[in-house]
Description:
With 757 residues, the chain is an alpha/beta fold. It is 46% helix and 12% strand. The strands form 6 sheets. It has a 7-stranded parallel sheet with strand order 3-2-1-4-5-6-7, with helices on both faces. A 6-stranded parallel sheet has the order 10-9-8-11-12-13, sandwiched between helices. Strands 14-15-16 form a 3-stranded antiparallel sheet.
Amino acid sequence: MGLRLAIVSTYPPRRCGLATFSEHLRGGLLAAGAEEVSVVAMVKPDAPAEQRPETVAVIRDDLEIDYRRAANLLNQGGYDAVLLQHEFGIFGGQAGIMVNHLLDRLEVPVIATLHTILSDPKPEYRQAMDALLRRVDAAVVMARRGGEIVREVYGASPERITYIPHGVPTPPAGTPEEWKERLGLSGRLVVMTFGLLGPGKGIETALEAVALAARSCPDLLYLIVGATHPEVLRREGERYRQGLEAQVAKLGIADHVRFVNRYLDEDELLGYLQAVDIYLVPYPGAQQISSGTLTYALAMGKAIISTPFVYAQELLGEGAGMLVPFGDAAAMGRALAELAADSGWRSSLSAAARARAKGFTWPEVGESYLQLAARLARRAARAQGGPVTVRTRSRPGGTRERTLPRPRLSHLERLTDSTGVIQHAFGPIPNLTTGYTSDDNARALLVSVWAAKAGEPVGRLHETYLAFLAYAQEQDGWFHNAFSYDRKPLAEERSEDCHARCLWGLAAAATQLSCRSVTWTAAQLLRRGLAPCGSIRTLRGMAGLAIAMAEWLEHRRGDARPDGAPGDDEVRAHLIRAADGLIAAWKQNHSPDWPWFEDRLTYDNAILPYALLRAGRVLDVPEYRRVGLAALEFLARVTFRDGVFWPIGNDGWYVRGGRRAEFDQQPLEATAMVLACREAGAVTGDKTWHSMAADAARWFTGKNALGLSLLDPETGGCHDGLTPHGVNRNQGAESTLAWLMAAYGLEQPAALSTAVR
């Protein structure tokens, strides 16, 4: 059955039971006739870069963009179905809710194998499971009782639930006695529990039971096999294992307990299982719906003692094993002693276990999954009348977003007088007492250039803003920022951010407007403005300078260079110095858990990775691109929640190790994120970044923390930010220009690279 499938799960080299399950499932699918089975591996952020050849993508569990990126890859890869292995803990967010970022965007049928099914879930787990079941096309359960729970508790329709057992490998050759000799266990009655070690598996109860059973069975040896769970090890080291060792000493059973403290590959695990006389499953939780090691022990014909969790009841409840009450060490000890003393009983349980596990081999399991995938593929083809790999139904959150409104210059024109753009507004009305800033006029110049290139009639706006910047430029080339309404410069400390932004607007005007005399003016102002740039030291000043220099180098026209324009070598030198300054800050401050340029996130944050990404593309410097992408991914992780852009608030910012400010949220943050994500898409060719840019732009239209649009459809302006209580009703220059820059910035690069009048 030549289907192309993809598994989404943890996967080797990651060490956990789910990874092993997925590796075997892949083998079973291929053995059953699948044409191709690729893997999208769930990993921790610090996972090793090397993955298996079949792994076509990784998803860092807490990074939303990775889920989006994987969805794009799977949609474009020609797959017939996606096999999602669902365990709450492997996905990011509360109860693993971040998996929805993947599911909402998938356009191929999805089969979810439910490895944990809670019959009495806490609200967050109920919400997560409900959301999952709404988004998948079929749910696979490995216990029939699991299917009943999915129907009764979560309301899933029976036709969307399929029972497929947990697969088992082929047992190794050799008798139990031969394997005991190989493993140094000869002469012992071997009891074993296997799995990554950590709290919540009932080992404490098992040790008490062994202490009781050992009184009548002096040759009993209990093997606790498996390394400490990596997450437990990360949180507390070996404290849990040491506590168990202390319990062994206190109970006086050191001769009856042996810890095998390492991660066993499967061949070694099967060897230990072959040597076992009794397999002990002491789990304390009733709701566990699957267990790979219990299934393995069953298929290998082991005598099994287990607590009566859901999966164990189903596998062992008809005489294929013994069930003892949860947490009852006395009952477990009696069962161990009785079974240890009766080899005939053990043989009877062994035969019953083997019979119960018929049909559990991985090729048989793979065939069942292939048949299910084929049914879904045929249904998709019938429903759509087209290729198999199309969405079979609308998924919640997966519908296409509404188109963003076209930007309008009407409010910018309202704020602009014969001098320049007024800084603030009272509602939509220009507040003349606040005067002007070079910062806003530089943004306005940039917007007028981009608007003209998009075919908008801009009249003489760019000439007005150029005239203002010419007036604001001091003798040494620096741009004074603040002016009163009567054009008098106000006392201030020099702003490197402002100076760099002026250079950006001038570089755009000098290279992308078609009127030669106007471009000459812009080029002259730009050249003079480069003179004091050697003194720029702040992060955002360097970022702005890098962007301005990249703007010039990317769009300059060699056949029509204005007289007296800056030389490329000079511009390139400024770009390299600025980008290197950002790299130096990164090297000094970043760490695995805080990959950023300083110890806090403040304002205009995305401008920093945007600058490096753009510098890396223009100069073709891999290090600039690498650091820019790493920083942007971190910022996206911090500021996107369930597809909603949630920028750092300016009421306290976000200091490393502290609590982030949620409000007030400023429009310039969304603009910087739009430009940075768009640039990341251009650098990498990854369309996921373009969708992130669009979502950041939708912050303006109501896809934000409060669900409120900041745009005024009557004026074309943008409100001045988002507070805990609603929008700031004023419509000043910075916010309106931020919206216009975001809207025009979403245009394709090719649309912004040709000269216009």
